[in-house]
Each structure stands twice: as structure tokens, then as C-alpha cells.
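Consider the following assembly input.
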Amino acid sequence: MGMRRVAIVGAGMTKFVRRALETGPELAWEAASRALASCDLRLSDIDGVVLGTAPDAFDAVHMKGEYLSDGAGAWRKPYIRTYVGGGTGVFSVIQGWYHVASGVFDTCLVVCEEKMSSHIPHPQGAFITIFDHILERPLGPNLLWIFAMEMNAYMNRYGLRKEDIAYVAVKNKRNAADHPAAMLGVRDITIKDVLDSPVLAWPVQRMDVSPIADGAVAVVLAADHVARRVTDKPVWIEGVGWNVDTTYWTNRDLSYPTYLEEAARMAYRMAGIKEPRKEIHVVEPYDPFDYKELHHLEGLLLADRGKAPEDAATGRFDRDNENHPDWLPSSPSGGLLGVGNPIAAAGLMKVAEIFWQLRGEAGDRQIPGNPKRGLAQAWGDLMQIGTVVILGV
Amino acid sequence: MTMEQWVYPSVYVKEDDFREGRVLYTTWQPRLFYAWDRGTAIGRFLAELKQGRIVGRRCRRCRRVVVPPRMFCEHCFRPNDEWVPLADTGTVITFSRCYITWDMRRLEHPQIPAVIAIDGASPGVGFLHHLGEVDPEAVHIGMKVKAVWKPADQREGAITDILYFKPMTE
Ligand SMILES: [Zn+2]
């Protein structure tokens, strides 16, 4: 397609916490400076900056992109803020990728920041505005409604058991116990703990949901010739995909994420992947809810429709279960359920995890067997966008 | 070498830190007012609700009948063609029992939001509303329901002119 190869050459992040002392620009700086340090680059080596962050309503700061720009390293540089809801963290890498793949920049710093704690008593107050202002908001909705209804549609379609879905929460919170930035790692959690947690919006219970958080993540992208100079372990962006479904969410089948399948097929095509279940060695699907990880594994064509919960129960997605015949470690980071869910930053954390896994730098979370190719995915807007990045070494 | 060194130790502040004045903060409580135009399609839809009727729009090219109505077909990307009267009955295609408010206070009696596929629209096509006059535990996907309207003199041309949908007695 006449595009240049692009690699991720560095990554850094802040700890994810319920409420950070730092402001948004400070969090952005902490992550961005760590990412630059990780590959021995300085800001003067960076040609352009991409920033991802959630709606201005979270912070009640207009022009949030500009507010965060100095912390993100954008001073006197080409800069753009991007936003596709929960899909932002992965999409920001896609946007950085086309800046570099096109030949416009040799290097691009991609930063995602979220500070959800400012909106009190709960950031849900800012989320309510995603519902249609004429037809839905007068009904007094809260954000959990749509996820609960999607989960119910998914469970009903395939006759799924709550305990098989809850296993994802257990797996991810256990995985997160080994993540140094995690806010919710729990080593001894059980399925019973999840099933006994308070019902919020049935079938969603307290422990089916990821916690809101403050935090930031950054990665450094470089064109082929620069990447090879900067590091001996470049991680190539082999495929990207994104796709949006209708905003008339009450007009579509919620039991299957068709838009994600479209995004995945786009990314697989670009990466030359014919058999994703064999060619993807590690995956970070977006998991703001436990059912979403499974829903997404199906949309990514990495599990049969309606079968991902059963697969999970067999340990197929466990981090260290290499003897499983169809082993595919999923969310080895601990995901949003375990590390935390500062929206845009959480999506980019997933890309960073694949980067570290493919370089063998994931520490206690390192999956065995030298994985060569991984996929990170996020999801957002009104349950309607899928964003996919495939990385390889 | 592992990624741990590239994690910045951000500072986690707890409720006590604020209560006891160890960290400072500034607050703002916005008072914002908006007036939203209802537009061509939704304007007509709401006017019909005021009369106790539900209407949709048909696209003659793809033959879909959609509700909420819009003046264009987003699939065919052309103007759609005509208004279609729909029934005030339908089928629950998904639902929840919600025990919390948006600010995470607990509700004693759950709200039951549902997506209701409206009879007369294309299969699986409908809108969001509440269910009422029903045992929350008895609600199921596939349940047939009917609109319960506000008294005619209290309707104002809003989605809330339908109070809720209730199960149909077979
Ligand atoms: Zn059409």
C-alpha cells in the first residue's frame, strides 16, 4: 500500500489509582517522560504528538486536548487530540501509526490520560450524556443500563452461565496482582466472590465491572529506519483496524459485535493473518466488564460465537496454561478489571502490555513460549466502535 | 529488564487526605441550560406520541421500517419514503433490573429498563423504555408488552407520554 513500516520502540505509564494527587497534565507528563526514557529519546527527537482522552465533561475543562498538551509533550509540535469513547486508547496508536506510516513523521509520541475522579460524586454523572437527549435521557438512565442489557442479550442468545463469565473477572484480577501499576490485583479471589457481590444492574454485579481510575500511558512510535537505530527490539505495528456501528443501538442485535469483526478483519488482512487463532499468541481484549472480554474474543474471531465463556472455563485464556490445546493467554496484564479503567489510558495500557510481552519484559506476568504476535483491542462510543492493533516481532 | 522501571509512582490520595486538609482542592458546580430542537423526524414522532400513537419510517429500497424514525436511511444513504403507523405493542428483546441510581445510591425496587421491538417495525427494531406492572423476576426476553399511556390531557409530546410498557395478558 506504499506505507512505511512503523514500530513501537518505548512505553511508560503511571500507576492507576482511584484518585491521583496529580493533575491531568502532570499524569500525562509522568507517562510520556517514562516512555521517552524507556527508549533513550528526548522530546526534541519527537516529530508529532497524538493525545487520547475522554470527553471534556469528566474534567469540566474545555479544550481538554490543549489543557493536556504541555504535559503530553506537544509544545510547538504538530499535535492532535483524538476521541472515540472507550475505543480511544487503541485508536490513538492507529492515529500515530498513520502519521508515521504516511511518511509525514519519523517519530510520534502517543499519550493517553484520564482523570475520572474530578467529577463527584461519581463520573457516571458525566456519562449520562451519552444517552439520546430527547428520547432516552428523560427516562432517567444510568450508564450501566446499556451494558447490563447487552450482557443479558449475549447470555440469553447462547444460554450462557454467569459463573463462566465471572471466571474472567477472577482471571484478570489475579493476573493484575503481578502488575506494578495495578489498583485492583487480588491473588485469592474466587468465582464465588464475584457471584456473591452486590447486584448493580442485573446481570451486572459489582465485581463484573472494572473500577474507575486516574492514570496515563504513553508509547513512542518510530519509522523503520529510526526504530532500528533506537532499539534492537522494535515491536512492529503489523495491522490496524477500526469500525463503527449505528448509533441507533436499540435497532441492532446486541449479542454479537459485528463492528468488531469488521475491524478485526481489516487488521488481519493488513497483517496477512489467515488463521488468527494460530497466528495470534497473546491478546488483550477490552474488558471493562467480564462479559466484554468474551464478547470481544468472539468478535475478534478468536473464539466461536457463544463459546468463549466455555473456553474460559477450560483455562484456555489463562496466562500460564501452555498445555491447553488451544491456549491463548488473554489479558495477561490483568486488564481493566484488574489494573483499572482510566478510559483512554486503559486502552493504551493494553497496547503497552502486548509491547512488553513481545519483548519479554513483562516481568512476573511474562507468558511462556516467546510470543511473536499479539493483538490489543478497545471498544467504545455507544457500544458501537471496535479498534484493533496487531503487533509483532 | 522488565517494564516495572517504566511505571511512574503516581500518588494515591484517599478520602481522609481531603477531609483532614492534607491536600487542597477547588470545586465548581455548573448551572447549564439547553433547549434542544427535536428536528423533523423526532418532532413528528413526539407529536404522534401526544396523540397516543407510535410511528416509524419506511425505506422502500431496503424495505426497513425503523423506529425511532429518521428522515434518511443510513444503509441506503438516501431519503426514506413514508410514515408508517406502528402498534403500541412489542417484544422485550433485552432488559435489566437496575438497583442503583447514576450516583450509585441503592434502589429498594429495581427499575426495569428494556429495549422493546415495536410491532410493525422491522424485526429487532425498537426503542428504550421502562417496564412496569410486572414482577421484576418474571420479566424475560421474548415477553410481549403493551404501552401504558399517560392520560391524554397530560401528554406533552415526549417519550414519557408512554409511562412504561406492561406485560400483555395472553
Ligand atoms: Zn434503506
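The domain at 6-121+211-392 of chain A is CATH 3.40.47.10 (Peroxisomal Thiolase; Chain A, domain 1). Ask yourself how this observation constrains the way the partners meet.
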